[in-house]
Specification:
The chain is built from 13 helices and no strands. It is mainly α. The chain has a domain of 148 residues: Leucine-rich Repeat Variant, CATH 1.25.10.90. The chain is globular. InterPro entries: ARM-type_fold, DNA_alkylation. It comes from Enterococcus eurekensis. This is DNA alkylation repair protein. Pfam families: DNA_alkylation.
């Protein structure tokens, strides 16, 4: 199965314009809706040996022009995330910091979260990342524990969030709010206390997002 042929055949110029506008005209698109793209990806996965991660495939997708290629690379890595090892983290960081925008970065944070949950030593790295000069690396650190519920490391979460208070960057403040909002579904009192303690240093956006369910 030739992915380029399948994606090209599914091109929709009208939807491509809409997608490009939504992403502030930073990336060109084929214009393939997510459900259709995932069907193409699933059909492709049936034709290949998926036992180990083919990093040449991933990095090749990342270099291609249309944004759907990067989405396919993320879908591929998520499908094979059990094959990820700590030594793959520099490769993941390279993806995070290349063609960076919230759409790909928020797909990649699941992979770092998986690695950190399986390998506690990665938590120290996430703490380091929370102070990185690159906002997208910091965003991954902030959000890497999403959906963990009772498995959330609250000590680490607090440290990472505190490292990013008093920030003016929209995507950082949004991430702080999302991280707190997600954990509030499990432990609303912890989130209330965090907001109460740190509200003078939190952006209104973070407080608004964090308070949605409490």
């Amino acid at each position: 199965m030739d992915l380029l042929t399948e994606l090209s055949n599914a091109t929709n110029s009208e939807k491509a314009q809409q997608m490009e506008k939504y992403m502030r005209d930073q990336f060109p698109f084929f214009g393939i809706p997510a459900p259709e793209r995932k069907k193409i990806f699933q059909a492709y996965m049936k034709t290949i040996d998926s036992i180990t991660i083919d990093w040449d495939f991933v990095e090749g997708c990342w270099k291609k022009e249309q944004r759907e290629w990067q989405y396919i690379a993320i879908d591929y890595l998520i499908r094979l995330k059990k094959q990820l090892i700590i030594s793959d983290i520099p490769r993941l960081k390279q993806l995070i910091t290349t063609k960076s925008w919230w759409d790909t970065v928020d797909g990649l944070d699941e992979l770092l979260g998986y690695l950190a949950l399986q390998n506690p030593e990665v938590e120290k790295l996430m703490l380091d990342w929370s102070q990185d000069e690159n906002i997208w690396v910091r965003r991954v650190a902030i959000n890497h524990q999403l959906l963990r519920k009772n498995r959330t490391n609250t000590i680490l979460l607090k440290q990472i969030l505190c490292n990013n208070l008093n920030d003016t960057e929209f995507f950082i403040n949004k991430a702080i709010g999302w991280s707190l909002r997600d954990y509030s579904k499990t432990n609303p009192e912890w989130v209330r206390q965090f907001i109460q303690t740190h509200k003078e240093h939190m952006a209104p956006l973070s407080i608004r997002e964090a308070s949605k369910y409490i």
